[in-house]
Amino acid sequence: MNRKEYQKNYRETHKGERKEYLHENREHINANRRDYYKRNKDKINKINKEYYKKNKAQAKDKRLRNDYGITSAEYDKMLEHQKGVCAICGEVKGSNQYGKTSLAVDHNHTTKKVRGLLCSCCNTALGLLSVDEKGISNLQNAIYYLGRNNENFRHPDRRSPD
Prior knowledge:
Elements: H1 3-13, H2 15-24, H3 26-39, H4 41-54, H5 56-68, H6 72-81, E1 104-107, E2 114-118, H7 120-129, H8 133-147
């Protein structure tokens, strides 16, 4: 039996013991990991940046899958369906935290359902208003507030006097 086979066999036969050890010593292990990170923060960040530069597509796909449950292909399909622009304003405004212009994945934080792609301005605006029932009411009130001095504006819930 070669070394790889031995290691694989050992892991399989001692899987339960390892799981139990990790569970019983979780706090100690995590404390050691935090301590190691503090001591080696620059080294770890440098390694992570190098990995990201070499594997941008994989990193993006992993982030999309973990955060929103979609793949890069699904994101690209949504982007194509929206013709590369924000689902609300029809533009691409603002930039992300890295200074790149891209569309954010808008999703319901409760159900995790993806709704569409938004520019950073519209995404921030929705986030500030929140999306619960009160947030939707606030958005409707804001529309009414902004349009009430415009004689061509009519609130969708209010009938115009005939």
